[in-house]
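Two entries, shown back to back:
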Amino acid sequence: MTNPRSGLVRRSFLVATGATAGALALTAGCSTGTGADTGAKNAAAGPPRRGGRLRAAFAGGGAGETLDPHAANLFVDAARAKALFDKLADYGADLAPVPRLAERWEPNASLDTWKVTLRKAAFHDGRPVTADDVLYSYRRIADPRGTFRAKASLEPVDLAASRALDATTVEFRLKRPYAEFPNVLAAFGAYIVPEDSTAFDRPVGSGPFRFVSFTPGSSLLLERNDAYWEGAPHLDELEFVIATEESARVSALLGGQVHYAHELAPASARTHEGKGRIDVVRLPGSGMQGFVMKTDRPPFDDKRVRQAFFLIADRKELVDGALSGAGEIGNDLFGKGYQYYAAELPQRAQDLDRARALLKEAGAEGLEVTLDTAPAGTGFLEAAGIFKEQAAKAGVTVEIRVGNKDTYWKDILNNGTFASYRSGAMPIESHISQRLLTGSTTNATKWQHKDFDDLYQQAQATRDDKERAALYTRMQRRLYDEGGFLIWGFADWIVATAPAVRGVSDKAPANTLDWARFDKIWLA
């Protein structure tokens, strides 16, 4: 067996969201602190306290918002879905899958059939969660008529051939050997809903909170699910409120109208951290920051030019300048700190002399290159300006071209030669399969090598964990030496809370299991 590792809704609260402000008194009897001492603060608070309503402010999606968990795209969608529903698995802090509704999973010898056993859990209406619910949910996500985000993650599964062996056991038949199949169970948006669910205006899930009321673009009110399989939440109620502008979320938190503000800018965090009015929590490893070099066209079809650009980058200057220091330096590999990350490779440092020598060898002295960027990600414009200055020291002229932030990701996928890039947290295997194989649909670096594809397929057919890890290391060493991702940093994801709030993890990258775990949070 494979043992997996481990009230009424206030429709408005801010002038910024088109409504009048109304103060919400925070629970008294709290201490102050910052993200650096979140764990100590939680421990000092003693055992969790039951009761109260916590209000959490997120950026929203307007009046067209839905509570359909399979349609989740925004962070607020994911946080609301997590409160109402469950997945079979989720990602731990190292992006390895952790069991949730699935109690365990076991592959056959050829890794093309997996048996998943469900734990005892119930939906909010009392019905047990069954294998039929799982198959219905996955088939709904995979329906070609739909546009659900988890569809791509489910591609390896032959859902027509998969079946329920009994009420608590699902047999998944796969289209090919897939050692990392548990990543499918943890995929973003792969939530389990009751069989035949089609409407989600009053959603019924198996999550830690039950639905009370919803006003799209404004507020969702939930109450504690006392029958939750992992134990009832500490809070009586949880309310999600929408404040799309970051300044509005910070103002609401400072004004006592909310207890939790999601996604602060590094500058805001630096302004308020340690002042005692709010607590800043930094979630490390949440976002990769870098540039893509398209390896199928000049000048980056010559690996010596790519290697020179690796050596031009002063990573600390980029993290300090573009992220206001809210992150850590990268090493041209995705997934620092995640399962399978090749941490043994030496940290790359700026070496302008060697960079100039490589460019000369490649016949690229006096190189001029256009860097596409846009205000589509935190620090993009700042990083572009910093790298331009760094490149000039190596004799490279970088022209910055600022594009449309709304179409940026589509524009740079196939066009241009050099562009700003970022990514959220995902397993290293998913990063490779989605971005680095010949047939990958989001292969922005145009890295297309059959021998690399073969290594990936070999890893997926390898049952032994150590042997599979060694194959991932080989792939990463190749990318480190000559890949098209110049990964200069990993940004912290920043949230802030009222000093009364306890239980917020400071070790969970965004979109992992312990991110937005409101069932584990309490008010001191």
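entry 2 starts here
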Amino acid sequence: MTVDKDTAGTEDAAGAENTIDVVVIGAGPTGLLLAGDLSAAGLSVTLIERRPRTAANLTRAFAVHARTLELLDARGLADELVSTGRRIDRVSPFGGMALSLQRLSTRYPFALITPQYETEKLLERRALSTGVDIRYDCELIGLSQDRDTVTLDVRTSRGARTASLHARHAVGADGVRSTVRTALGLPFPGQAVVRSMVLADVRLAAPPEDVLAVNGHADAFAFLVPFGDGWYRAIGWDRDGNAEDTDPVDLDELRAIARTALGTDHGMHDPRWISRFHSDERQVPHYRSGRVFLAGDAAHVHSPAGGLGMNTGLQDAANLSWKLAAALHGHTPDPEALLDSYHRERHPVGRLVLRISGALVRAVTATGPVRRTARSLGAALLPRLGPARDRALGLVSGIAISYPPPPGTRRPAGRRAPDLALVPGPHGQRLYEALRAGGFVLITPPGPATPPGAPLTHVHWRTDRRSACVLVRPDGYIAWSARTATDTELAAAVATWLLPTTRTPGSGYGSGPAQKA
């Protein structure tokens, strides 16, 4: 596997031998997870990234929420990522409100604070180990598609060489200024929600006692989070600020904002860089256009409040990857309907995330006596209102995110599957270990036969008292369940999702080339 390779030799006309299964554009967390999943499932995958291999991607995200950690656990990656950061057991969104994450029913009842580059490092290593062809310094300059193929025109900065790639599908995970979205002619409606924010990496003479220092009110907002190496990311906003993103900015301005919002600037000094930016709320109306899909910031962008951006993008990738693999391998009875379900399931989630992050920003920066009173009441009451509190924690952490039940099913279909205890065996002793095989997992009591030819992992409950049968999708959501089921009923339920096929042993989400189908 060669990184940063030239694109010579790809000018040939599209043919079966030259057509890539999937080309992913953008090597941020979303693109890296998606590419790794697809390659682990046995598909040919090329991942192109405009920046050079040696150029670090800007760390914007620091929070990894519980649902994202569960998805990484299903790939055998969560424990390693947890070791790179620090856990936060409670969050204080505004107004002195304190919410305990320990109430979350998950293996990961906390938010992990770790720089985005740690997540990217882990996902890049995994993508390379599964055989993804990563091409840095490779820029998409044009895209077209017909009924069978996506053609991507690319250019390498080194010598400005141009070439074409041909793929069965393409995914734009190339950020808020997505070239893929522009090439598709899709609008990106929305508005700026916060203007003239100041962003910097600084050192602190008096670091805060807590992992995070965050506070906001009607006049200012400030946020400090550690990289873990002595540097801190600082973000500040002042209501009176009306500068453009390109206007000059210095550390004194950021210090003043921090003192207003936090009561101290913690002795900020020696910034290694500092800039302005603004935060938008935008969402593309369609996540799919023919053979091309959008994911992550290319599909939705919002304020940094709640640390939801990277998490939502990674969950987009987890939803899309298994559907593309099933469609391309011919494992699904209705490939087009399955691929369409990506937009149907994830677009409402993106819209919800925009609302949550927007509500947090508006609560923090509330003006006027009515809004401030409402914020104070919310801060006082929400921690005491059990169902509302748990719902809020579930949505921010991703644990409470669910999809509509598929036709012909009912709840809990569409809901996230908890990490269920299983009889110890070759696939582990809990559900998210069994999901590392990369396919559907069928959980039954001992006795029922595995549906013949179905490409799934069949496991059993650890306790003899459970008679239910549950079919879990590769992304950890329940596809179907029944209190009891005969062999015939199991086979019928599985057949609505999977076609009988000859499965290559060892294929899955693991991290080695030998696990490819």
